[in-house]
Amino acid sequence: MSVRIEADVADVVGPVPRRLFGSFVEHLGRAVYTGIHEPGHSTSDGRGFRGDVLELVRELGPTVVRYPGGNFVSAYRWEDGVGPDRPVRLDPAWHSVESNRFGLHEFAAWAEAAGVEVMYAVNLGIQEAADVLEYCNHPGGTELSERRRANGAGRPFGFRLWCLGNEMDGPWQIGHKTADEYGRLAAETARVMRMIDPDVELVVAGSSNAEMPTFGEWERTVLRHTAGLVDHISLHAYYQELDGDTDSYLASAAALDAYIRTTAGIIDEVGSRVGISVDEWNVWDQRRWNSTDQPQLVAGGWQEHPRLLEDTYDLTDAVVVGSLLSSLLRNVDRVTMANQAQLVNVIAPIRTEPGGAAWRQPTFHPFRLVSSLARGVSLRLGFEGDRIRTAQHSEVDLVDVAATVDESVGAVFLTNRATTTSTDVEIRLRGARFGVPAAETLTATGPVPLPGATATSDAKGTVITATLPPLSWTVLRLAAPDA
Ligand code: AHR
């Protein structure tokens, strides 16, 4: 099998936004409790932040973290999580007991320790959203801002990014609405939020997945209502292997490309200029949630931080995650940010045991490599070569590719969708001289060097060759030959 890829360093899709490498912490299962927060753990600091997890988060390299939900947010009262009195409540979304020991101040402090920006999701209505924004961002002199100060945050948190609810198109969502109902509410909420803090960036909820019967019409309606009031529209996308159909699973990135481009087309059609916030994406075995986790959860009664959505990933999952990251890179002309859902324990690259270790899942490695290596601009790519027919996503390129360059360095991210054969790749990169100082390919335990990659360059550009192992995700690091 062989493919040829063409690019020109002057032909770019757009700059790579740092916010493309976001993540997500929801009050769900053990994401917060015994995930990022576990007072008494041997690595925890005085605030109960697990040091082993913080170290892994810094290594992973997320830039922005969405909080506190997800479905959780739609029954959440933010005031329960501030101040000395923390009521214990039912969390109906995940059939759990919420202790509220961890809340807004704790998350702001954790985000600072992790070096990430906060993306805060509000539970609509208008008053709830206005109040939490005033509490967080108003300097002082009002009841809410003084309460924040009394609770230990003298300076405003200054959160810029706010989500107007979560998956409001989904019948599973508490407070689910029609597109018209949601669009009106989101617009009125956005208006008052902008009055309180004109610097906020607002994300209106788009579709929960591309198969929603309302996909398309939902975006049109919501964008018309919120015209001029919001900055981004969300898009959520999860992928899984069904019935052992690995070929289709490996083609997930093509499905994400199509979902993003269709959403972009709708944004253009209604004359909007909003960006696309892919603020939940990942691989997730939802059959396990539906058939095992959820019935067990309900049968087990109401528990505090039960084990939920603790998917164990393998190399194929990691390869798909790598290709989904490439899809985001290919679409940076429209995608302004993205959040892998989620960060710890819940469908996550990092897992922990209470009182025990924290470790990297196979999906950790592609995220770490892309967040650290994808810099500068994403290149437009031409593809020639073998394609494969899949049951779910029709015909796709045999090799999925994204490439970024930043002056004298760059990276090419390659997914070989051939499951049993290696694939020879030739990349013709016009307009720059590069060498390939390192090439790595994923294994289940992490990346290993890939031997045999070559680069020859002249005044016109560089020709790179590599042989990709079957069912693999590979990164070629590029650097100016004399660097
Ligand atoms: O990430 C898990 C859940 O998936 C989120 O709570 C919800 O928004 C989505 O359906």
Features:
483 residues; alpha/beta; 2 domains; TIM Barrel; eight-stranded parallel beta sheet; binds alpha-L-arabinofuranose; globular; Immunoglobulin-like; ten-stranded mixed beta sheet
Model description:
This protein has 483 residues and is α/β, with parallel strands linked by helices. The protein is 27% helix and 30% strand. The chain has two domains: 112 residues, Sandwich (Immunoglobulin-like), CATH 2.60.40; 357 residues, TIM Barrel (Alpha-Beta Barrel). The strands form five sheets. The protein has a ten-stranded mixed β-sheet, with helices on one face. It has an eight-stranded parallel β-sheet with strand order 2-3-6-7-8-9-10-12. A hairpin with a 4-residue loop joins β4 and β5. α3 packs parallel to α5 and α5 packs parallel to α6. The mean pLDDT is 97. Alpha-L-arabinofuranose binds next to loops.
Topology:
Elements: E1 2-15, E2 23-24, H1 51-60, E3 64-67, E4 89-91, E5 96-98, H2 104-114, E6 117-122, H3 126-137, H4 143-150, E7 161-164, H5 179-196, E8 201-204, H6 217-225, E9 232-239, H7 246-250, H8 252-269, E10 275-283, H9 286-299, E11 303-304, H10 315-330, E12 335-340, E13 350-352, E14 358-360, H11 364-373, E15 377-385, E16 387-390, E17 394-397, E18 399-406, E19 409-416, E20 423-430, E21 435-443, E22 446-449, E23 454-458, E24 461-468, E25 472-479
Parallel strand pairs: 1-20, 2-3, 3-6, 5-11, 6-7, 7-8, 8-9, 9-10, 10-12
Antiparallel strand pairs: 1-15, 4-5, 13-14, 15-18, 16-17, 18-19, 19-25, 20-24, 21-22, 21-25, 23-24
The structure holds alpha-L-arabinofuranose.
